[in-house]
Amino acid sequence: MDLLGLTIKNVSEKLKDGAFSCKELIKECLSIIKINDKKINAFLTLNEDGALKKADEFDNLIKNDKEIFKKKPLLGIPMGVKDLYTTRGIITTAGSKIIKDYNPPFNATVIRRLIDAGVIIVGKTNEDAWGHGSSGENTDYEPTKNPYDLSRVPGGSSSGSGAAVSYGACLVGTGTDTGSSVRLPAGYCNLVGLKPTYGRVSRYGVIAMASSFDSIGHMTKTVYDNAKVLEVTAGVDPYDGTTVPIRVDKYTKVLGQNIKGLKIGLPKEYFVEGLDNKINISIRESLKVFEKLGATIEEITLPHTDFAMAAYYILVPSEVSSNLSRYDGVRYGGPRELFGAEAKRRIMLGSYTLSSGYYDAYYLKAAKVRTLIKQDFENAFKKVDVLIAPTSPTLPFKIGEKVNNPLQMYLSDIFLCPTNLAGIPGLNVPSGFADGLPVGMQIIGSQFSEELLYKVAYLFEQETQHYKIRPQFKNG
Amino acid sequence: MDKKYQTIIGMEIHVELKTNSKMFCGCKNDPFHAEKPNIYTCPVCLGLPGALPVANKKAIEWTIALGIALGCKINKFSKFDRKHYFYPDLPKGYQISQYDMPFCFDGKVETSFGPIKITRVHLEEDTGKLIHQKVNGRNVSLIDFNRSGVPLVEIVTEPEIYSSVQAKEYAKKLRQIVRYLDISDCDMEKGGMRLEANISLAVIPAKAGIQDKKGNNRLDPLLRGDDKILELPNYKVELKNINSFRFLERGIEYEIERQREILEKGETPIQETRGFNAEKGITYSQRTKEEAADYRYFPDPDLPPININDKWFSEIESQMPEALEDLFARWIKEYKINREMTELLFETSNQAKWLDKLFSEAVKAKLPVDKLINLLIHKKIKTELFEIDQSQIIAEYKKEVTVDELADDEIVNYIKKAVTANPQAVADYKAGKGNAINFLVGAVMREAKKKIEFNRLVKLIKSSV
């Protein structure tokens, strides 16, 4: 069983055919993790007993119920869960030391849906504490490493999920994307990573970072796998008043349909100085593929892009400072001095920008900028169907390279955070490699256009097959 | 009347709504009847990581109904905000409340001293309850979250209340309106309705002396506008957590006296929060506020803004009972009721509807409604109000007021027996004790085992003795 090269699609077929059992599959995952994770640090908590028990249960179901794969579309699929997701009975730390022993009494809505669909949680994955970061280095535990180059970061904040899927520890990893946190690790780990439309996937039970930004996404090796998972996670949730009752498409149905006549916009503000030329070249190569597939490409403008970062770093810390108030050490968890440097930085920033006398000048002003950014995208989508841009201005950087310069670290999100301000969806797809490192490309769409993003990404993936290049990672 | 200081009071009253479920989760809203602490809780009202609030539609509708009943304007576009402060009974570190867009604003409540302007009516969530007690010999603080997340309405007035009596009247009136809408039990003892008064004394300049009929300085137009002649004092004392109308009145009275003494010394009372000690009859300092707390309000991103469109608004309006003032006006006109008496009979609009039917049947039966009300209040008619058919009450009433047919000489026979049996009462009567005649009336009726018209009997006793 070569988990490194397998996808959800392959594994589902093999489980159906009886090529291997759920138990064999989960045992293989756990053994890969045990051998490799000391080096990668993708996992914070393993769910070994729970996963094996579930595998037994499913193997019985497979034997006795021919229809089981229809009832449970993700039956037996091993999943890594970002530690911001509350999982009943499995320690949930948010990557922080404050709640290092927190054992939630309930499951996040998305976790409940995925479990109902048959996934098996193999463990909880590492992350920048509370989701604050772009590299994974802000974890209060050991930082996760990039499976393509162990001296480099895997991208964050969903660092563990990205690395875990990438090195074959599981087939899907959940993430949360507040400013970049699914798409960046997907880009750095050669994965497909979705930041869904705000309101498409329930946030209930996912520990809040910045509530009006948090988008509940996931990473997989392929577009098909990614679409398959969204079919389960998307949809209105009575426990989350910000979810929207818009029909959930059968995303996998449209994969393979042609994209002739598709209009692609290139935001000129995303192809500027500071963008690594190797990435620029990779994206331009990819654009040729789209042209070959029948798409047309034109340059467009998102004029307020320059202000996005500033607005983001006022609004997000404001919400962060509020959301972290509940960790007061009274009923559970440790005292507030256990917050890491980045969390403290954001609590202070946010408390300041919300203070009376400063609120109008900071929070309110930034909220107005947010509206302008949103309008930029709305105007762009009057002209084109999707936007394509690099995911990150740089290749995966060295561990430690930016830890002492928060501003440099923040700039890793410069092409990604505008979509969170606007609440629109973005999908990272592998664009190729430079210096042996993955290059990520993002496809951005208008609100609730996930189906279109998958359709566009799928044809490109079929043409290029970059996902097949897995890390040169030898077991042991 | 020569007054040097004018009392200025603004009130903030909290009322817990009696919706079935809590404000932002599905937990049962019944903190006062819970058998044990922390049984009506869930991740949302415990503020567990990842839990999200979803607003209770009923609570919003009831808040708007209260606003309408108070003559408020309604914000058709409203939202919830987060109010941040740390306290162990506040599990999220913030309270979900409303800051700059309350559901209702600009209303008024009439009192016998004049109208009181309602600044705003907003909806928020209640906190948990701290219990300080000894466990195994150790002093501990326990938290009960049964109350956490219970819908709480806050009604704020302008500083336009000018006496303790008016404050009490306002608070009682508000309770009556809330109970009439049947949206809260307003159980003051348990904290279902909590009173808070901001009290200060303003110095009356020599030229201000316009007085009303009762001799109070008329200040309503004097605090506002270009021609205002009274400045709001530069301090205020918050009298908090008052759980009875009587304590409110006494607490304010005490404060007026305390503040007057300080002002007389040429000092300014400290801006602070004070409580009322009912046993000692005094107020005491709880917390001094050097400066205004910064609650870092901002719109709660978990709760989408609320659009009260015309359709929803008219639905709320159509479900409201006849306005209390209209009801009394109609009853006075149609049934000649006495308002103060009738107010003692009922609380909710459903009870009012029931009484309305009773009164109309009484009129049809040509019975005096005011007398019926009197008998009901004094429990002379043994019955369960609001639960039985009105015709039964009418029958009971008739039985109660109907007298037995008796000839004068028959009555005189009974009087003789009663007089013989009660020589002391006769002596008392002759000595001029007025009560004695009532005693004899009772004695005759008991002797006769009959109902005799009171005045006729008194007359006959007087002539017999």
TrEMBL record, chain A:
One term under GO cellular component: glutamyl-tRNA(Gln) amidotransferase complex
GO molecular function: ATP binding; glutaminyl-tRNA synthase (glutamine-hydrolyzing) activity; transferase activity
The Amidase domain, residue ranges: 24-453
SUPFAM superfamilies found in the cross-reference section: Amidase signature (AS) enzymes
GO BP annotations, alphabetical order: translation
Top-level taxonomic group: Bacteria
Record's keyword terms, sorted: ATP-binding, Ligase, Nucleotide-binding, Protein biosynthesis, Transferase
Active site feature: 82 (charge relay system), 157 (charge relay system), 181 (acyl-ester intermediate)
InterPro entries reported in the protein's UniProt record: Amidase (IPR000120), Amidase_CS (IPR020556), Amidase_dom (IPR023631), AS_sf (IPR036928), GatA (IPR004412)
Reactions that this protein is recorded to catalyse: L-glutamyl-tRNA(Gln) + L-glutamine + ATP + H2O = L-glutaminyl-tRNA(Gln) + L-glutamate + ADP + phosphate + H(+)
Entry EC number(s): 6.3.5.7
Uppermost EC category: ligase
UniProt family annotation: Belongs to the amidase family. GatA subfamily.
Self-association and partners: Heterotrimer of A, B and C subunits.
Functional description taken from the UniProt entry: Allows the formation of correctly charged Gln-tRNA(Gln) through the transamidation of misacylated Glu-tRNA(Gln) in organisms which lack glutaminyl-tRNA synthetase. The reaction takes place in the presence of glutamine and ATP through an activated gamma-phospho-Glu-tRNA(Gln).
Matches recorded under NCBIfam families: gatA (TIGR00132)
Protein name per its UniProtKB record: Glutamyl-tRNA(Gln) amidotransferase subunit A
Gene that encodes it: gatA
From TrEMBL, chain B:
InterPro entries assigned: Asn/Gln-tRNA_amidoTrfase_suB/E, Asn/Gln-tRNA_Trfase_suB/E_cat, Asn/Gln_amidotransferase, Asn/Gln_tRNA_amidoTrase-B-like, GatB, GatB_Yqey_C_2, Gln-tRNA_amidoTrfase_suB_CS, Gln_synth/guanido_kin_cat_dom
Pfam families: GatB_N, GatB_Yqey
EC number of the protein: 6.3.5.-
Chain ranges of the Asn/Gln amidotransferase domain: 344-465
Enzyme's top EC category: ligase
Gene Ontology molecular functions: asparaginyl-tRNA synthase (glutamine-hydrolyzing) activity; ATP binding; glutaminyl-tRNA synthase (glutamine-hydrolyzing) activity; transferase activity
Tagged with keyword Protein biosynthesis: yes
GO terms (BP aspect): translation
UniProt keywords, alphabetically: ATP-binding, Ligase, Nucleotide-binding, Protein biosynthesis, Transferase
Catalytic activity: L-aspartyl-tRNA(Asn) + L-glutamine + ATP + H2O = L-asparaginyl-tRNA(Asn) + L-glutamate + ADP + phosphate + 2 H(+); L-glutamyl-tRNA(Gln) + L-glutamine + ATP + H2O = L-glutaminyl-tRNA(Gln) + L-glutamate + ADP + phosphate + H(+)
Similarity comment text for this entry: Belongs to the GatB/GatE family. GatB subfamily.
Primary role: Allows the formation of correctly charged Asn-tRNA(Asn) or Gln-tRNA(Gln) through the transamidation of misacylated Asp-tRNA(Asn) or Glu-tRNA(Gln) in organisms which lack either or both of asparaginyl-tRNA or glutaminyl-tRNA synthetases. The reaction takes place in the presence of glutamine and ATP through an activated phospho-Asp-tRNA(Asn) or phospho-Glu-tRNA(Gln).
Designated name of the protein: Aspartyl/glutamyl-tRNA(Asn/Gln) amidotransferase subunit B
Organism: Candidatus Roizmanbacteria bacterium GW2011_GWA2_35_19
Origin organism lineage: Bacteria, Candidatus Roizmaniibacteriota
